[in-house]
Each structure stands twice: as C-alpha cells, then as structure tokens.
User: Fold this.
Amino acid sequence: MKLTTLLASAAMALGLASGAMADDPTKVGFVYVGPVGDGGWTYEHDQGRKAVEAAFGDKVETVYVENVAEGPDSERVMTQMALEGADLIFTTSFGYMDPTINVAKKFPNVKFEHATGYKRADNVSTYSARFYEGRAVQGVIAGHMTKSNVVGYIGSFPIPEVIRGINSAFIHAKKVNPDVEFKIVWAFTWFDPAKEADAAKVLIEQGADVILQHTDSTAPQAAAQAAGNVVTFGQASDMAEYGPFPRVSSIIDNWGPYYVARTKAVMDGTWESVDTWDGIAPGMVGIGEITDAVPTEVRAEALALKDAIAAGEYFPFTGPLKKQDGSDWLAEGETADDGTLAGMNFFVEGLTGDIPQ
Amino acid sequence: MDLSAINPVQLIAFLMVAATPVLLAAIGELIVEKSGVLNLGVEGMMITGAIAGFAVTVETGSPAVGFVAAAGAGALLSCLFVVLTQFALANQVASGLALTLFGLGLSALLGQSYVGVKPPTTPKVEIAGLSDLPVVGPILFNHDLMVYFGIALVAATWAVLKFTRTGLILRAVGENHDAAHALGYKVVRIRILAILFGGACAGLGGAYISLIRVPQWTEGMTAGVGWIALALVVFASWKPWRALLGAYLFGGVTVVQLNLQAAGVAIPVEYLAMSPYLITIVVLVILSADKSSAPAALGRVFHASR
Assistant:
C-alpha cells in the first residue's frame, strides 16, 4: 500500500505541475483516508470539495489524493501538495494529526485544516462535527427498535471521537430501554468492506438486531440486509440506498459550507487558526430521514430530541452520569465541558469491555 | 465474558467463507510463481474481477455468468502483464505493481454506476438430507459453490503439480528455464498460460468478495487481500495444501478474534487484531522448516537468445 500511495502522490504531483499554468487560482488540497467512492466518510468530504469548486469556479483549483495511509505516507502527500503550491490543505482523518503539524511547521505560509484532531498551530486549524449529537438520536431509535436488547457497535479505532459516539448512543438507548446491552467490536480500520461485513455478521450471530457502525463503508448495511431482520444506521453519509430497511436513519456529515467559508477566508486573507466544533444546529451534522420502518411515536421522540439539541435546550452528556468503574463523572444537571469530550477515553457506566489503550 | 454466545459450528462455516477469496488468489499466484514468474498484480486483478463479476451479475441476474466474467476480466488484465514481462521483457516487480495500480484505478472507473446496487443472491448448494445434519451439515454441506470450487482447485493443483507431465513441465520451466528451453519446451507460452490462470483465479477471488462475502461494490474493497495472498504463497512454500491451511488459518483467526471481541473476552484487542497475521506466519514458518525453497528461476527474465 505504501508504494501505491507513493506512486499516487507522484502522479498527483504531475497533475499539479500541469495545472500550475493557469491564472493563479487559489489552490486547495484534500487528503482522504479512503476512496471517494466509499459511500461514507470520504465521499462526504469529496462532496465538500465539489461544493468549493461550485462556489468559486475558475478562481479555485482543487486537488485530492485518496487512500492515503495514516502516518508517514500522509506526510509525504501533504509535503508534495505544499511544494506544488497549495494555499490551503484539508487533512480529513484523525490519524493525520501529527503529520499535519509536522508539515505545517515546514510551510508557514500554507494554511492547514485538520479534521477531528486537537492539535493546532498558527497555520493549523482544527474542525470537527458533534457527531455525538446524532448518536444520541440514533441511540433513542436503537433502544426502541431492538427486540433482543443487544445492540452491536462496530468501532474503528479507540479514539475520543469514536468513544464519544459509543457513550452517547448507549446513554440514550439505555434511557428508553433499561435492559439494552452493547456489544462492541473494534475493527482497527476505517475502511475495509470485507472486515466490516465480517464484524457485522459476527455481531448479528451473537444476537444483535441493531447495528451501529463507526467505519466508513456500506458493507455492514449489506450484511444486515442479508440477515433480514437487523436495523442499521447510515454513517457519515445518508446511505439511503439501504433504506427504508435495514437503514432506518443516518448521521450525515455536511462539510460543504465550512469548506467554502474557509476557502473564502484564504482568498480574502482573513484566515485565522480556529477550532470549529459544530453540531446539528449549524447544520454540520444532519439526521437522515427516519423511515417508515420506525414506529411513529419513536420517530416523534427521536425528532423531538433532535430539535431540543438543535435549540440548545438539551445536551447529550448531562448528569447524573457515572463512569464505567462506578466513579462519579457528572452530577445531576451538570454538563460535560468540551475539553473532557475532546479527550474522552472512558466508557460510561453500564458498558462492558475495556477500551484498547 | 460470555463464550456461549459463540457457536463453533457457525464459526467454522463462516471461516470457510472468509478464507475463500484469499485462497483462490493464492492458488492462482502459486501456479504463476511455480512457472518462474512473480506477478505482484494480484490485488489489481482481484479488484478488477470484483467489479467485472459484480457488474455482469447485476446486468444479467446470474451470479454464475458473473463469476465467469470475473475470471475472464482477471485473465484479460493479466494479458497486460504478459505483454510487459514476456514480450517486452520488462522488470516483473515493477510491471506487477503497475498492474495493481492500473487495476485499482480501472475498477473505480468501471464501478461508478454500481455503488449502492444490490446484487442478486448467489444460491447455496443444498443437498437434501445432508445440509440438515447437525454440526456436519452447516460446516460441509451448506455453502455456495465457490467454496467447494476453491477446495477442488487446491486438490487439482496439487495433483497436477505432483503427478502429471504438465505439472513436471511447469515446474521445470520455473526451476531452470534455459534447460527447459533446451529440451524444446515453449517457455514463454507455458508462462503465459500460467499467468492467465493466475489472473482468472484472482478475478474469481475478487468477485467472491463483491458478490458473496460483502456483497456490494465499493471502490478499493479488496483492501489488501491480494497482498495477503502473495505472502501466503511464500509462507506456504509453494505447496497447495499449505496454502489452503494458511488461508483457513488466516480467515479462521480473523473470524475468531471478532467473535471473541463481541463476546467480551478480556484479551487486549490489539493482540486479537494482530493475531491472524502472527499465527498464520508462525505456523507456516514452522511448517516450512523442511527446506523447500522458491522456484529457482522465480522473477528472472527469459529470452531464447541467451
């Protein structure tokens, strides 16, 4: 895979070089962890890239490299983009955090935007979406829809973003269904359809009749569809092609407006290093249509929760909440601060299993 | 921890399915390498087979036609490798890598209109009476045809290599192409046939992923299975039955570790996640202590003038 990426970046460099003849448009680079056709995470980032192209036309030139492995490979790809004159580079996976910081040091005039991380610099912004708000809505639906009271959860890597999602979904599923139990499988990959499908099949075999995924492909949806009586949720993208059943709703990432705004800031020279973390209210997190497979009152309850979150009346992590080991986390009515959420490395009470450290 | 949630019978049946793609690709590559050619393009041929099989199955509604098309597409792509290495005498490593890159790009292009499409289900072979037997039924008599085809292919490859004149010639070409040439065997022609066979097998393996194991089309969906098949051939010391063992071990441990995770076994997940690779390598390395070595002419360019 390493050679693949290397050659891909070389090919990209050629593409960039030929593009440099144009009338010096603002150059925006995107580094993707999966293929643009994954139907999930990377697909939505690429939709964001297309939104930038649509908004600025000739004044902008976008380039992207897909399937970039997290780690040293990504550093090479970013360096290549910067050398070829990119003005703004979006690095769209958690594992690009340190490489982004390293490359940003070498190119102080290039602006970097790193998704879902927490390390910033003068020319590095971070941005993420409050996916856990969407997970809360999913949790409510999952808690109501499960008949076996076993909900399967396919995690990718044990990073705060994924752990937050598991906690949020579990808290809200437990609220509507006190008997619910979560079985969690770590796939240790963002994108590997065969492995994701295997994980889903294993969970279904062990009694799960609702599958939540935090991996990027639609493979678990296909596995659930084959099983016949298992509920799933679209992840990152709507995955509407698997609706109305098994996919009963989804979390949709909407990066377009943010990418357009940040590109505009670079053009105007007003770009500053910021930390953006938007949720349902500003539209960065969307809830896909809840299908007819969900009973009306459950749908109403889920939508009411969504509206309350959007209106700022309800916060998904509100006390009383305890950590998995039984120690107190949040007192009655207390809400978690962003710092704790950003670095969340513990399960809440009731979840079983350890987080791989 | 609740180990009772794991059903060992389902587990074994499941691992046979998980192992089939890598097994098919590995058997194909084994024949290619036995003929003295190193084709690193397995991943590219697999993914091309995956989309070709998927597209044809969706269009015709017949998985059988789809698998034939996948084999054809894999073989067709390997023709590129044939031209580069057997006629242009290009470096096999570079040509193989190029084939992988080309296959990944080509499949992404071909597959654009097939994202999110659901393929027709591939039927399982149900044998009246046998499929319903306890334990043995689900393990041995309740699979799709390709699982049996994979095992049969291993047996056939083994028998051909060991007992037939064809196998002897193939091995001779792989061990010493100059001597084989001097004896009057058509080295290039034999190698071309081996490469085409390897391409067809890789295509079948890819189609198995897109049509049965997942089943859907997603760009880059083989996600490195081709490379695992390549490694498996080496660790299996170029012996068909060991390739089968390696593939089942790999598939088996992958499935078992997911099951253990879901059952909440208190082994750190990192160890579970690396276990398929580790266990497969350790077992095959121990087995290969019998000094069986690579075909002597592996990766070397042949030209009749030398």
